[in-house]
Amino acid sequence: MTSVYTTSIADCRLDLTFIVDSSGSINYPTDWDKSKQFVADVVREFDIGPYDVQVAFVLFSAWATVEWDFTENQDKQTLTNEILGMRYRGGGTNLYDALKLTRTEVYTQRRGARNGALRAAIILTDGDVGTRQTIQTATLCKNDGIWLMAVGVTEHVNVAGLHEIISSPSDYYPVDDALPTIVKSIKSKICPEISK
Prior knowledge:
alpha/beta
């Protein structure tokens, strides 16, 4: 697939985690495929590797798992193939567990997180935040320097819930027919010093 952009971002030290909702409230296959395509589109806009952008992937439904960390899938083609091959789970929603794993497992040296790299996480969900414990864990993530963004991927997104966990009101993006515009906007926010 050809990129809709003419340039990519190089020399950007970014440790980027995608936290992707695979619960029953994410319509399969429409919203699920849209989520995977969104992640792949973002990845295509960066130079992937140990000296540029590293990508980890946390999948959640009733439970959360680190599908891969920053030490794996360090070339763009392998990474894109893994993203597009992710299987849908269904079931309940446990964003709390996903955020906890992101904070305590993903952003660690043994998982490949780098000192001095920008830490950002993009949450793809319908906004079922769950309990206050989820919001508290999101606050801990932000206190640890993890920039939290969210993308609403269904027609019925709980935007108010997502605003309680993201880093700022401007860090929420609805997914609709303007997906390429959203990708470009997130890309420019992640590395503004390079994309100017």
